[in-house]
Every structure is written in structure tokens, then in C-alpha cells.
Amino acid sequence: MITLDKNLCKGCNICTEFCHQHVYEESLTLDKKGVYVPNPKNVERCTKCQICSLMCPDQAIEVEEDDED
Amino acid sequence: MDETKENRFMKYLRRERLPNIFCAGCGIGIVMNTFFNGMEMAEVPLEEVVMASGIGCSSRIPGYVKCDSLHTTHGRPISFATGLKLANPEMNVVVFTGDGDAAAIGGNHLIHSARRNIDITVICINNSIYGMTGGQISPTSPQGSYATTAPYGALENPFDLSRLVTAAGASYVARWTTAHPLQLSKAIKKGLNNKGFSFIEVISQCHTYFGRKNRMGSPIDMLKWMKEESVVKRKADKMDESELEGKIIVGEFHNKPAPELSQINCKLLEDKCTAGKSSAFRSAYQGD
Questions:
Q1: How far is B103 from chain A (nearest CA, A)?
Q2: Residue B185 with chain A: CB contacts under 8 Å
Q3: Is B275 within the bounds of a domain?
Q4: Domain spans of chain A?
Q5: B204 touches chain A (CB under 8 A)
Q6: CATH topology of domain A2-63
Q7: Number of structural domains, chain B?
Q8: ipTM reported for the complex, 2 dp
Q9: Which string of DSSP letters, residue by residue, matches chain B?
């Protein structure tokens, strides 16, 4: 489960580029701040390696471990 | 927002000051994350950490972290940190500094702290340019790189900070880039656990100034450049000088424990003080 804080995200899309499973996708429309916030579209591919949350310069991403696993 | 759905490092940050002032995609945010990750790996609680910083973009980090901190004069954070460590040797003193702060104006403080081998951890965020003041050439700008004060490319040889600090006598020296967050976390962990002067140089992206002037306008371009151009030290040692042109040598440069200044100082106090006071901090308040 991936949570993205849209108030903190500045739309640099480092997560979109550096996720080796291509979980994120850059959105096509601007949000209220005028940035392209990434969208965690392919969540089922996520391996929970935590690279996106470690590389997010604005501490906007949290990747949670699933309880049922 | 639900606390369980927040970033795992949010508990260390001053929430009311977020979002931070850094440009979108700035490497300083990545260094903050890797520092917290390394701190968790080293099992150091944030209550035992004191941060000191000088002037520059990188020096704004302690303002966002919930810990004791000093925001000091330009180039002098290492001097303030030396005072902090000698006053209370039980604290983990961490200095966040930039390349202009550590290499240009505070170069002398850097080499002398390394010579003394005092137990502080210096994290130098090297973005090869003066980012806060408008993109001037810094002492670590690669030869031939462009900046607002170098429209025909930098003419001078850059400083190799890691080699400089190794030669000056530090006991742990490592260099990584922001494109290597896991290796960087491990280096920070080793630096925090090391008793002695630990210097961790982080090559970071300043896409706003360095990137724009050198045809890498986005943070992703710069991160890809750093990933492609970096060579691990073990491999670089076997390569020719001509092959290494324009490459970033990353890895552990030096790891050799040596006698540490604050411990020597405490021991001297214990030996010479008949009252049995073990640290400078306690002896200063003994008369009250």
C-alpha cells in the first residue's frame, strides 16, 4: 500500500524514474500547486524495496507492508 | 493525515516547517532521508544527536529536524562542533555542510579538525556550485564546467575533498552520490559508529544552477549522470588516469581507527584532576 502526501510532493518525479518495477506514472494534468504529481498506478508490482520513500526529497511517500503477508 | 500513513522519517521532522524550502528534486532531501536511515541502522537515538551547520542550502537541514542544533557562521560549523564535542563528549555531533562552506571559506577548519581526529561526523553535501547565491563557481566545480561566473568553463583544478581529508588525518572517509542511497546510508552508519573524525562526501544534484548551466536541467538527468559516471574506488584503483577523466570515484577512501581528541582530553583531565572529574563539562560546573 503506497500513500503519497500531495501537500508535500513537489512533482520532481524521481520516484517515477527510479522505481525499477515502474509502479509510478507521471500524471498528465497539473494539480492545484501546478506540478505533475506521480500516481502509484501499478501497486500490484511493488516489491516494497522502499527506494522511492528513501529517494523522495520531500518525505511525501510511505510504503506500508501488507498485514496479510 | 493518519500517522501510520506518513513517511517513516516524519517523526524526526518539524512538521510545521514542511514542505521544505529546497527546489523540487533537490538532493538535500535525499541526504536527510539517508541520514535518518543510517542513524536508525547505527541505533543512535535522535536525542543523542547534535547538529551544527554553517551557511548555504545544505546548512538548512538542522532547521527541519527535531533535535538540538546550531546554525552558525559561514564556514565555521566544524569549529562550533569541536566546542560542542569537547564540552559534552557523550553527544554524537553531526555537521551538515556544503562544498562552499567546508572547502572554500572553512577549508582550514576542515583540515585541522581532521588532523585532530575529533569524534564528529561531517556530512559534506557537494553540489559543485554555490547554489544559494546564484550559481557561482565553487572550489569543487569540475574543470570545464559552466557557471554564472564561468561562462567559458571553469579554468581551475577542483579540490578532491575526500583525498584532502584522508591526507589530513581523518579516520573514516567515504564518498557516495545521492543516486546511491543505500550505500550512503551504510557509510553514514559507519561514520556515526566510528570514534574519530568521519567525513562523508555526498555528490548531490543542483539542477537549478549546476544542471541548467551544464545541459542537465532536471534532477532525473543529473541523477542518471551521477549513476553512469561513478566508478567504485576498488575498480578505479586499477584504471588509468586517462580513463578516469570526468568520472566520479565513489566508495570508502579510508577506514583506520586512530586515537581521538575528546577521549585524550578526558583522560588528561582524569589524570591531572585530583577531584576525579571525568569530563570538561562536569569540571566547568563543579564550583557552583
A1: 25
A2: 54
A3: no
A4: 2-63
A5: no
A6: Alpha-Beta Plaits (3.30.70)
A7: 1
A8: 0.93
A9: --GGGS-TTGGGB-GGGPSPSSPTT-HHHHHHHHHHHHHHHTT--GGGEEEEE-SSSGGGGGGGBSSEEEE-STT-HHHHHHHHHHH-TTSEEEEEEEHIIIIIITHHHHHHHHHHT-SEEEEEEE-SEETTTT-EE-TTSPTT--BTTBTT---SPPP-HHHHHHHHT-SEEEEEETT-HHHHHHHHHHHHHSSS-EEEEEE---IIIIIHHTT--SHHHHHHHHHHHEEEHHHHTTS-TTTTTT-EEEEEEEE-----HHHHHHHHHHHH-TT---SHHHHHTTT-
